[in-house]
Design goal:
Layout (H helix, E strand, L loop, with lengths): L1 E13 L12 E16 L2 E14 L7 E13 L4 E14 L13 E14 L6 E14 L3 H4 L4 E15 L2 E13 L9 E12 L5 E14 L7 E15 L2 E13 L6 E14 L4 E14 L7 E16 L2 E14 L6 E13 L1
Antiparallel strand pairs: 1-2, 1-18, 2-3, 3-4, 4-5, 5-6, 6-7, 7-8, 8-9, 9-10, 10-11, 11-12, 12-13, 13-14, 14-15, 15-16, 16-17, 17-18
């Protein structure tokens, strides 16, 4: 067994903690993040256990400070050349920062506990013409404070799916996929319980040494269980492409259209997202990442009608000062336009990072 311990420290400034355009709150901040990963190999199988904590402090707004904890175990089991399985179990304690949801602003961030189980079984050898994958997960989230506002956000999500891959070239596979998610809100005050069904066709490829990626397109449906909420059907897609024109320079592009659960406004949200990132290594120690992210959120059956358009432009620098010491800096500017003027905001976030490992 091998252990990988470390700690990250960040210091910076957030000029709009609550993501508002009135009564704006700003503050210097710091984050201390200790972590450890234990990894073991038994034959071809790999196991790991990892723990991470993030202690976030806002010096001019102590009520917004909070801590997050993550404990996760993973196993990749290889039974033989044709059969393998992946397992994950996860326990997470964290909070929704004030202003990050559409629930009313409480005196402190909305804290929650979340448990997740995941399993995937695959049948098909590497290089075989065909492969089948079956996966299933269960997520349970419970809010632990501000219950007058957060009780209705407790939820259980059972998700399962199947994917069939067919190799049409040495480095290209096409696939068909079907998925279903059962989303249950146990509190009787909530009428958002629903079933989501998704059907996709797609491909994975490594066309050249410079280009890899995947793309899938299909249909997503959301059927609410009760409360008179209208069912929905939308085209859906998920695309990710990496282009490496040089061995030390990479461009990543992603596109996604999916449903997002409502946190207080509308029955649900149709979210369309895109991002472009350029990572370039100037030498063996220094690299940067320039990125742009855009999100369009359409709130289903919201009164009044609400549509948001959010853009983030950011730049990160990382410098590997020593094998065990990493330095970094990041600046991100975010703007949200909305059809409802009360949800407009701008935010600038500046962070400096020191990371150490053994």
């Amino acid at each position: 067994m091998v252990a990988y311990p470390g700690v990250d420290f960040q210091a910076g400034y957030n000029d709009n903690l609550h993501l508002t355009n009135t009564n704006v709150v700003s503050s210097p901040l710091s984050v201390i993040s200790p972590y450890v990963k234990l990894e073991a190999k038994v034959g071809a199988s790999v196991y790991d256990l990892q723990y991470r904590s993030d202690f976030l402090r806002y010096y001019d707004s102590p009520a917004d400070s909070y801590a997050s904890h993550l404990l996760q175990g993973n196993a990749r089991l290889v039974f033989d050349a044709r059969n393998d399985m992946r397992l994950r179990i996860e326990e997470r304690l964290s909070s929704d920062p004030r202003g990050s949801t559409d629930r009313p602003l409480s005196a402190t961030p909305d804290s929650w506990r979340q448990s997740t189980l995941y399993a995937m079984y695959g049948h098909g050898a590497t290089g075989a013409p065909g492969r089948l994958e079956f996966d299933a997960s269960y997520l349970e989230r419970r809010y632990t404070n501000n219950r007058d506002e957060t009780a209705g956000s407790d939820k259980n999500v059972t998700d399962f799916g199947a994917t069939f891959f067919w190799r049409i070239a040495p480095k290209t596979r096409v696939f068909v996929q079907a998925r279903r998610a059962l989303i249950d809100y146990p509190q009787p005050i909530t009428t958002q319980s629903s079933t989501e069904t998704r059907y996709f066709v797609g491909a994975q490829w490594e066309a050249t040494v410079q280009t890899t990626g995947y793309a899938k397109f299909g249909l997503m449906e959301k059927n609410f269980k009760g409360g008179g909420l209208a069912s929905q059907s939308e085209p859906s897609w998920d695309v990710g492409v990496r282009w490496s024109p040089l061995s030390y320079s990479v461009v990543d592009v992603s596109l996604l259209k999916t449903y997002v659960e409502s946190t207080g406004i509308g029955d649900a949200v149709v979210s369309t997202r895109g991002s472009v990132g350029w990572t370039h290594a100037w030498n063996s120690r220094l690299n940067h990442n320039l990125y742009w992210m855009k999100t369009n959120d359409d709130y289903i059956e919201s009164i009044p009608t609400r549509k948001d358009d959010t853009n983030t432009l950011g730049l990160k620098f990382n410098y590997q000062f020593q094998r065990w010491l990493r330095l970094g800096a990041e600046f991100a500017h975010t703007e949200r336009d909305s059809s409802d003027a009360q949800y407009l905001y701008r935010r600038n976030l500046l962070l400096f990072t020191v990371g150490g490992t053994l």
